[in-house]
Amino acid sequence: MLETVTQGFKNATERLRGVRELTEESIEEALRDVRMSLLEADVDLKVTRSFLARVKERALGEKVETRVKDRSGRKLRVTPGQHFVRICEEELTELMGPVDPSLAKRDGLVSIMLAGLQGVGKTTIAAKLAVYLRKQGRKPLLVAADIYRPAAVDQLRTLGASIDVPVHSGAEGERPPSICRAALERAKREGFTAIVYDTAGRLAVDDDLMVELEEIVAGVDPANKLLVCDALMGRDAVNVAGAFAERIALDGVILTKLDGDARGGAALAVKAVTGVPIKFLGTGETVDRLEEFRPEGLASRILGMGDIVGLVKDFEEVVDEKEAEADAERLLKGRFGLDDLLKQMRMIQKLGPLKEVFAKMPMFGGMADQVDEGELTKVEAMIQSMTRAERSDPTLIDKSRARRIARGCGRTVGDIEGLVERFMQMRQLMGALGKGGLLSGLGGGGLPAMGGPGGLPMPPGGFDPSMLMGGAGRGGGRKRQDPKSKKSKRKQQRASRKKTRKK
Ligand SMILES: Nc1nc2c(ncn2[C@@H]2O[C@H](COP(=O)(O)OP(=O)(O)OP(=O)(O)O)[C@@H](O)[C@H]2O)c(=O)[nH]1
Ligand SMILES: [Mg+2]
């Protein structure tokens, strides 16, 4: 999603590479790329203009410190281009923010009315929200208030059945405002603690639709009146959102189909236009694809840096900080062995499905689809068949050792040699990255040092990302480890050390 804008920012930073300071001229030039990509992504013109003006003003006004200290006191070098990226990121965050995934409740009931044009994903979001609310311990009721499209009620019923959430629908010929009122009565009577009204969509904003929504609002007074927009709407989203906001007092916006469109201009402008926060993102057709909206996350994804904050947060949950920092250091100095790889693989497994982990990484986002978890399970098995010495120094692995390892894990000698070869490449690459300073701090919980996109050293011909992060194939059912249970973790480590010593 939003690849167009990402490319614009990449081009802009590329232009600023090697620039000594941010002058009006160099900023203007960089901003030209950004402007073009924003317009191409169909971001509203006014929003684009004011965004660019703010970035320019700040970029000109700020003194560029080229040496800064990160949180652990380490000195880092920052280029003007990286400063520019940081300013853009902060302004993007500002443009799309704030963070507010909260849902209002009244008398213990979370009530949500979904409104929006035809086909934007209201019904899908209704089901997603029901799942979301149930995860929060609520008992949700879905309400089919779309009586115009013949299959609409059935669609919601099917969805409801698939997630095991009851769906309230009206009698033959009953009007939506009356259906909603009856549903609310039922919810109170039957002890539901959340209710989601799925209303009808129209091809364009028309008065009938608005009157109906106003009647529903008057009848059931939903605590959350949410406008659903899809990312494909671009500039139109602005007019539509404006029209809805004029008639009903919106409490928030939900953006859908962020997975589908490369342009996604609506995401950037909708908050500025409606003045209400974006609450959630829909990122796929299935009911689990709902995310609470975090502007920083989206901003850094747009800038092509991946959602590092999100990833770091995930990391903090599963990783012992000190240990991670030491690991990261060694990693970035190119001094690590296959045993480190194995450890990292296991850590990554705890973060969730690999594809999602990769999507959040700055460099690998685009490769997320290529990750093959099954391959990674094989890698894990191969490493486990090696001795401790071989793991820490894979150069030891000659033909005869490779044969023994291959026998141990049921793979071919070629597989083993391939693994070692790719591992050596990767180690070299990590060393190069470490010198660039990009990833320093990532593992330790701190933010990376403003590494700009485009400034990354990459090996010729690229490398296999799955090699870097390791496999989740085997650990599908494995539970996340409680970060506090360090005792049991240490015990585990001791046990595994013992085991390897024996070998
Ligand atoms: N890729 C993708 N598709 C989505 C997403 N949300 C919804 N869709 C698809 O978009 C289509 C329309 O979704 P609905 O939920 O029926 O939209 P609606 O707003 O209820 O449509 P009407 O009731 O006709 O106004 C369906 O094919 C959905 O599967 C999403 O986040 N990503
Ligand atoms: Mg619908």
Describe the 3D structure.
The protein has 503 residues and is an alpha/beta fold. The protein folds into three domains: 3-96, SRP54, nucleotide-binding domain (Four Helix Bundle (Hemerythrin (Met), subunit A), Up-down Bundle), CATH 1.20.120; 110-301, 3-Layer(aba) Sandwich (Rossmann fold); 308-502, Signal recognition particle, SRP54 subunit, M-domain (434 Repressor (Amino-terminal Domain), Orthogonal Bundle), CATH 1.10.260. It has 21 helices and ten strands. It has helices at residues 3-15, 24-40, 45-61, 80-96, 122-135, 152-163, 176-189, 207-220, 235-247, 265-274, 295-302, 308-318, 321-332, 338-349, 354-360, 373-384, 388-392, 399-409, 413-436, 465-469, 486-502, and strands spanning 67-69, 75-77, 110-115, 140-145, 167-169, 194-199, 224-230, 252-256, 278-282, 290-292. The strands form two sheets. Strands 5-4-6-3-7-8-9-10 form an eight-stranded mixed beta sheet, with helices on both faces. Strand 9 and strand 10 form a beta hairpin. Helix 9 runs parallel beside helix 10 and helix 16 (373-384) crosses helix 18 (399-409).
- Supply the CATH class of the largest domain: Mainly Alpha
Task: Characterize the largest beta sheet: strand count, sense, and whether it forms a barrel.
Answer: 8 strands, mixed
- Mean pLDDT, to the nearest integer, reads 77
The rounded Rg comes to 26 Å
Report the structural category. alpha/beta
